[in-house]
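We were asked to recover a plausible sequence for a given structure. The inputs and outputs are reproduced exactly as logged, with field labels preserved.

PROBLEM: sequence recovery
POSITIONS: 313
GIVEN STRUCTURE:
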């Protein structure tokens, strides 16, 4: 077993989503559409919130960062998955596997804390509206984004270096549609206790700390809204949180569905479906939720559309 090490292993075989040939073409078409909608939606929000002068607020700064992370981790997984649908043998090289896992881990971890920062932003906007521009300064907004990125890079590189400098047993079949850490760990010959412990500790910390910030922020928001005398004020406050709260419920609901299931009812198929949902479907849904539920975004889109029409005609 010791003769199989990381220098021998050149590529991995990904089992993909299904091994049924008749489903390959329909699934390829479906996920191509999902990925393209995700790219167009997230790129559109990034550009719109950057160039529209009325969207230069902390709320839309964080929305731009959310779209960037959505685009980042869906692109880390989506294109290679689509290529493997039409490939004779769905493979990924050893190097690209490590690169894919690195970028996916960085962006998905960062997104968790971006959602927390957005919850804090909504808390300040509703509970301390007169101090909003002072508290949510440009410097604080950049710090709330920079720290998650630096933390995510450090943690992701640490765990991935641990995995890819360990010895593999010569087996190169990954039971997934992308290079994920848990299937890779199962292929290691060396002791995996330390790697599993690192992943467990930081995954637990990420989930609990971010969810704690979100929960406390929304409890304080709810208390503040209930104290409002005006029904119009309550409705406006709820509407400013609606999109973010919807995204929060979908994102954390998917994570809990994946990781909080008892092992007795957990299956490979349900894990695949949940993985597909948070790697491809959620990045598609987020810009749609913010575009359809946010009047300022819709108004900005209308302004830019009319501007483009006037220029062309």
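RECOVERED SEQUENCE:
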């Amino acid at each position: 077993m010791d003769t199989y090490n990381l220098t021998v292993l050149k590529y991995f075989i990904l089992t993909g989503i299904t091994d049924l040939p008749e489903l390959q073409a329909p699934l390829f078409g479906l996920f191509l559409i999902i990925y393209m909608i995700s790219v167009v939606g997230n790129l559109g929000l990034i550009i719109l919130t950057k160039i529209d002068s009325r969207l230069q607020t902390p709320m839309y700064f964080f929305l731009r960062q959310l779209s960037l992370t959505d685009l980042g981790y869906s692109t880390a997984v989506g294109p290679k998955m689509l290529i493997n649908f039409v490939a004779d043998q769905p493979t990924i090289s050893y190097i690209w596997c490590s690169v894919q896992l690195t970028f996916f881990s960085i962006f998905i971890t960062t997104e968790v804390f971006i959602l927390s920062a957005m919850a804090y932003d909504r808390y300040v906007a509703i509970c301390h509206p007169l101090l909003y521009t002072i508290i949510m300064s440009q410097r604080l907004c950049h710090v709330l984004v920079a720290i998650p990125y630096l933390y995510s890079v450090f943690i992701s590189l640490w765990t991935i270096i641990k995995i890819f400098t360990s010895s593999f047993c010569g087996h190169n079949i990954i039971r997934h549609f992308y290079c994920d850490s848990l299937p890779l760990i199962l292929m290691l010959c060396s002791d995996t206790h330390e790697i599993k412990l690192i992943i467990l500790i930081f995954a637990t910390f990420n989930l609990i700390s971010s969810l704690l910030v979100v929960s406390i922020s929304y409890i304080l928001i709810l208390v503040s809204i209930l104290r409002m005398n005006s029904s119009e004020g309550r409705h406006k406050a709820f509407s400013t949180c609606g999109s973010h709260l919807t995204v929060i419920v979908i994102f954390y609901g998917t994570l809990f569905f994946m990781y909080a299931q008892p092992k007795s009812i957990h299956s490979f198929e349900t894990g695949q479906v949940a993985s597909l949902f948070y790697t491809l479907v959620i990045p598609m849904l987020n810009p749609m939720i913010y575009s359809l539920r946010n009047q300022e975004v819709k108004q900005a889109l209308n302004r830019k559309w009319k501007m483009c029409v006037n220029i062309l005609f």
